[in-house]
Write a structure and sequence with these properties.
Elements: E1 10-11, H1 36-52, H2 61-68, E2 76-81, H3 88-91, E3 99-104, H4 111-124, E4 128-134, H5 138-145, H6 153-166, H7 174-193, E5 204-210, E6 217-219
Parallel strand pairs: 2-3, 2-4, 4-5
Antiparallel strand pairs: 1-5, 5-6
Helix pairs in contact: 5-6, 6-7
């Protein structure tokens, strides 16, 4: 059974603050912090635009490039799969500077990803973290098929395999269930391990799954 919280957005627990030294990209306090609810609404509206349009056009990329050349204030962090069909800037219809994106096969997080999340929260002002999985994920499919794989793909399979095992006796499609369980576990890992200090109470983690056919992002409850 896919474990779920009644609240698909879970507030972080408080952790000790990590001192960070990214002075080169740190421009004091973010100009305008977008709260998690407003950030979620922007993503939902963006995905609706993406689904509704057959061609993406009219995006002011040069203007956005100029506006963000000296500093960035992304309103959301997306932890997504590296799958070429799931680009967050496209599926959420966003522009340069809008999203802070971390992508690995299977939308996993390691220490580098957690550090990136901490940096985006503390120095760039992001307050919403979205773990974005997707249907028919090849990384999860590999973990369903086997507990091991050659090379570094084996590390990915090993990380996802507990999610597969957790849903192995559940009714329904094992790949669908494993994708959802993996999203849940990654969100839990971020909530437990990201060191956000006093900002933790302002940050929320949301879970979502992308439909490769319709383009819709389903928010998981
Ligand atoms: Zn994938």
């Amino acid at each position: 059974m896919f474990r779920r919280s009644k609240h698909f957005i879970a507030a972080f627990a408080v952790f000790a603050s990590a001192s960070m030294a990214f002075a080169a990209d740190h421009h004091a306090e973010p100009a305008a912090v977008v709260g998690p609810d407003a950030a979620l609404a922007k993503l939902q509206a963006g995905n609706a635009r993406y689904v509704a349009k057959s061609v993406s056009e009219g995006k002011a990329t040069a203007k956005a490039r100029a506006a963000t050349a000296q500093s960035q204030h992304p309103f959301a962090i997306i932890v997504g799969c590296a799958d070429s069909r799931t680009s967050p800037e496209i599926v959420f219809d966003q522009n340069l500077g809008d999203l802070f994106v971390i992508r690995t096969a299977g939308n996993l997080v390691d220490d580098y990803a957690l550090g990136s999340i901490e940096y985006a929260v503390e120095h760039l002002g992001a307050r919403l973290i979205v773990v974005l999985g997707h249907e028919r994920c090849g990384a999860v499919k590999a973990a369903v098929a086997s507990g091991s794989a050659p090379g570094h793909v084996g590390s990915i399979v090993k990380e996802i395999r507990p999610a597969v095992n957790a849903v192995s006796k559940d009714a329904g499609d094992v790949l669908v269930n494993a994708v959802n369980e993996n999203i849940y576990r990654v969100a839990q890992k971020i909530s437990k391990k990201a060191s956000l200090g006093e900002l933790s109470s302002q940050v929320r983690v949301a879970r979502a799954v992308y439909d490769l056919d319709s383009g819709k992002v389903e928010w998981l409850h």
